[in-house]
Write a structure and sequence with these properties.
This protein is α/β, with parallel strands linked by helices. Helices cover about 40% and strands about 15% of the residues. The longest helix is centred in the C-terminal third of the chain and has 16 residues.
């Protein structure tokens, strides 16, 4: 194949979990010209995806303003499109997408699997446990029998951090005075309030870890989380708030220096997993269990089953936030201690 289109939309986490699938395509077709097609999150894709995995990144045109971009896309002819859409897209819309991509490419891979693995938005508990998103996206490719693909076990979400990026992270940590400390990456915020855990509980966990392991917390987040992170930092004896200060690849390089990621289900968690850092991840029950688990088997996932699980809502519909309130300081602290002890062994 000479020209390939990869279709995947979404934010930081959506892009990070697609890394194994994107790498599988690149390794299968090392000489192909690969166009990564996404939505308005082009800047995210440019930061998360290593340059080796693509030749250009295009955004999905919005109509009517995007008519010119749409005509340019239609004018291109691809040998294949790899359809890496999320599992909440219903079969009718998937088939509509197929018609579009058939107009611009000879083959469309991943459609049949996406239809088979569709996860309904409205569902009654108890929810079934599903494969992690990164595994589902790999299945979209590896279930296509005609493709000559690399061994699946060789595929990882490699960010291909450069020496310059790693050196920058090292310099930042030196400036913070914590390069020789036991670092933990802390991420408390989420764009979905339903995924947030009480910051007072985070503070309690971190204080206990400071006493037991003398850890140094590096608090991540976006610019809009800088103030709340500073409030948390004021309750601690030491730490650093780097929310909104650096690009995603620099954040990932700093995470690589950490012994642990502690936080909620976020894109930062997936960046931590991509650089091989064990995660203690606090999950709400908004989605299917297992769906957004980070890459790897060395993580501690904490999630509670509740009668209202599967709401897929950014805001708690019952106002009780039961799925997160049931998660105790003690079990999160214990999970962190186990990870840190294993790391030191």
């Amino acid at each position: 194949m000479r020209r390939i289109l990869v279709y995947r939309i979404g934010s930081i986490g959506d892009t990070a979990v697609a890394l194994p699938a994107v790498w599988a395509i690149r390794k299968a077709f090392p000489s192909a010209h690969i166009t990564y097609l996404t939505n308005e999150s082009k800047k995210i894709a440019e930061q998360v995806l290593p340059e080796e995995t693509y030749d250009e990144i295009s955004t999905y045109p919005k109509l009517p303003k995007g008519l010119v971009d749409l005509s340019k896309l239609l004018a291109k002819r691809f040998d294949a499109t790899f359809y890496l859409m999320n599992r909440n897209r219903d079969p009718i819309r998937i088939r509509r997408d197929k018609l579009f991509f058939k107009m611009i490419s000879r083959k469309v891979y991943g459609i049949s699997h996406a239809i088979r693995e569709y996860l309904p938005i409205h569902v009654r508990p108890p929810l079934k446990i599903v494969k992690p998103e990164h595994e589902y996206l790999l299945d979209c490719i590896y279930q296509e029998q005609e493709l000559d693909l690399p061994p699946r076990e060789s595929i990882t979400p490699d960010l291909k951090l450069t020496e310059a990026e790693k050196n920058r992270a090292k310099k930042i940590l030196e400036e913070l005075g914590c390069e020789n400390k036991v670092l933990i990456g802390l991420m408390m915020g989420s764009q979905w309030p339903s995924k947030q855990w009480d910051t007072r509980r985070f503070i309690e966990v971190v204080k206990r870890l400071m006493k037991e392991k003398d850890i140094f917390p590096i608090i991540f987040g976006g610019k809009n989380e800088k103030d709340i992170n500073n409030q948390v930092l004021s309750k601690l004896t030491h730490g650093a708030n780097i929310a909104g200060m650096f690009d995603l690849r620099t954040d990932a390089a700093i995470l690589e220096k950490c012994s642990l990621y502690l936080g909620v289900d976020t894109g930062t968690m997936h960046l931590a997993a991509a650089v091989g850092i064990p995660c203690v991840a606090i999950f709400s029950a908004t989605d299917y269990p297992g769906r957004w688990h980070p890459f790897g088997d060395h993580h501690k996932i904490i999630r509670k089953t509740v009668p209202c699980e599967g709401c897929l809502s950014a805001f708690c519909q019952t106002k009780s936030h039961e799925c997160m309130d049931k998660i105790s300081v003690e079990e999160v602290y214990t999970a962190c201690l186990e990870v840190l002890n294993n790391h030191a062994a």
